[in-house]
Design goal:
- The structure is a single chain.
- The chain is mainly α and about 200 residues long.
- Strands 1-2 form a two-stranded antiparallel ribbon.
- The longest helix is centred in the middle third of the chain and has 62 residues, at about 35-95.
- It has helices at about 1-15, 35-95, 110-125, 130-135, 135-150, 155-170, 175-190, and strands at about 20-25, 30-35.
Length: about 200
């Protein structure tokens, strides 16, 4: 179908002249001119609607098919990117929520457990369910935070990750406390009126 249209356009371009008229002959000293350019324009205008009603659905179908092929990869990339952003926020929140924890500091077992638990609970309370599911639920989030932390030599999955997951499952991490801390963080970041 597209080849036929391309060939028709090529034929039209080959026969079309700049004057869009052809001299058929002469009568006396006057030339008889056939204004075929006007007829061609009238034909194109009359065929515009049928061509558009046929071509637009075909073009739209190709575009939709291309989007369907690309969409799963794009959706996967965007979901993974959201999971990574969520984990960065969880690690930052956990480090800020636990005293003795700081970014770039090696964490001991006693500090790492509440960092993981509070960071995971923060994600569960604030992230969309689809992102939580993509991260593997509460246990998956805790495991990913565990892998992102800089832990001392005594830290292991059994010593850090399992107790953090138990705290999360038992509900001992106070979600209201986490929300209050999250609301206080912007207030602490803005300088007071007299500060300069």
């Amino acid at each position: 179908m597209t080849r036929v249209l391309l060939l028709a356009a090529l034929a039209l371009a080959c026969v079309a002249s700049t004057a869009f008229a052809a001299e058929l002959g002469t009568i006396g000293d006057k030339a008889v001119i056939l204004p075929w350019g006007d007829w061609l324009v009238a034909l194109a205008v009359s065929l515009r609607d049928p061509i558009l009603t046929i071509l637009l659905p075909i073009i739209a179908a190709y575009i939709i098919q291309a989007i369907r092929k690309v969409y799963p990869w794009a959706a996967l990339f965007l979901t993974q990117r959201r999971v990574e952003m969520m984990l960065e926020a969880a690690v930052g929140f956990g480090l800020n929520a636990v005293s003795g924890a700081a970014k770039g500091k090696t964490l001991s077992v006693n500090v790492a457990v509440p960092v993981i638990a509070k960071g995971t609970q923060y994600v569960i309370d604030t992230a969309p369910p689809a992102v939580i599911k993509a991260a593997g639920g509460a246990d998956g989030i805790a495991a990913r935070i565990f892998r992102k932390l800089d832990l001392d030599d005594h830290a292991s999955e059994a010593a850090v990750l399992v107790p953090a997951q138990e705290q999360i499952a038992a509900g001992t991490v106070d979600a209201d406390e986490l929300r209050r801390m999250d609301e206080m963080t912007p207030a602490l970041m803005t300088p007071a009126a007299g500060d300069s």
